[in-house]
Design brief:
Layout: H1 12-17, E1 25-28, E2 32-36, E3 44-50, H2 57-63, H3 66-82, E4 90-93, E5 109-113
The structure holds guanosine-5'-monophosphate.
Length: 125
C-alpha cells in the first residue's frame, strides 16, 4: 500500500533527506528539498519533497501544519521559477496510491518542463 499507512523510514526519499544517498539538488529551504529525477521523463524533471514525514498528498493535506503546507507549495513555485519554466510553462503532478502508480511513499511533486507536454494523461492503458 503506497500513499497510506505507516511512514517507511527506509524509503528512498527519506534516505536522500538524511544524506544517506546522493541527489542532484536544485533547491532547498526550511520546508522542501528539490532534486533531479533519476529517470527523467522530460528535459526538466524535478522532484520537490517536504522535509516532514508524509507518505502522500493525502497524508500531507491531513496532517501538515499551515506553515509547512504553505512553505512547501511556495517552494514548488519557486523551484519552477528558478528553473526558468514560468514563461514556457510546466506541469506539476503528484501520484497518490495504487491506481496512480506511486512508487516512493514520501509525498513528492513532479515538475515537468522544457518541451510541449502533450495531453494530461495517456489516452489508453
Ligand atoms: P512516483 O511514481 O512515486 O510518483 O515517482 C517516483 C519518482 O522517483 C520516479 O520518477 C523515479 O524515477 C524517482 N526516483 C526513484 N528513486 C530515485 C532516486 O534514488 N533518486 C532520484 N533522484 N529519483 C528517484
Amino acid at each position: 500500500m503506497k500513499g497510506l499507512g505507516e511512514y517507511d523510514e527506509g524509503n528512498v526519499f527519506a534516505r536522500i533527506l538524511r544524506g544517506e544517498i546522493p541527489c542532484r539538488r536544485v533547491f532547498e529551504d526550511e520546508w522542501a528539498l528539490a532534486f533531479d529525477d533519476i529517470n527523467p521523463q522530460a528535459p526538466t524533471h524535478v522532484l520537490v519533497i517536504p522535509k516532514g514525514r508524509y507518505i502522500s498528498i493525502a497524508d500531507f493535506a491531513a496532517r501538515g501544519g499551515q506553515a509547512e503546507i504553505a512553505g512547501f507549495w511556495r517552494a514548488v513555485g519557486e523551484v519552477a521559477r528558478r528553473l526558468g519554466l514560468e514563461a514556457p510553462g510546466y506541469r506539476i503532478l503528484a501520484n497518490m496510491g495504487e491506481d496512480s502508480g506511486q512508487e516512493v511513499p514520501h509525498f513528492h511533486v513532479h515538475i515537468f518542463g522544457g518541451r510541449p507536454l502533450g495531453r494530461m494523461l495517456p489516452t489508453a492503458g
